[in-house]
Amino acid sequence: MIGDNKDMLLSTIPFSVATGMEVVEVGPARARIRLPWRADLVGNPNTGVLHGGIITALIDNACGCAVICALPAMTSIATLDLRIDYLRPATPGEAVIVDAECYRLTRNIAFIRALAHHGDRDDAIAHSVSTFMLGANRAPAKDLDRKDHGHGA
Length: 153
Description:
This protein has helices at about 10, 15-20, 50-70; strands at about 20-25, 30-35, 40-45, 50, 75-85, 95-105, 110-115, 125-135. By secondary structure, the protein is of the alpha+beta class. The radius of gyration is 18 Å and the shape is globular.
């Protein structure tokens, strides 16, 4: 579905653009996203290690891209749960790559696993599993009148 339009996956997300995230490769139900090292993304200026929050955002974006690549038709998505095990600090000065795979897609939920690394998947920085809600911007159910249901003012 995405094919040659892989760059559109992150180009509509201002935070991803501002931080320099790049879509490297996409395929059926998978995405590889890269974040070049930048001094303004460092969490500890004494070590030069990237901030954990930027790694989290990178993983979240890669997982979302994998979900989009798994969908039979475009719909909105939202992160429901994101669990990350940080295995070691990112190496200062090196880009971080995240490989994400949507390994199961149900009517309402997508399940994703991801790995952050510097190019060697056997020397990972972080491992992640997540779930995303599909159709996240569907119209909400009609609001109930609070007074009529024991929740009155």
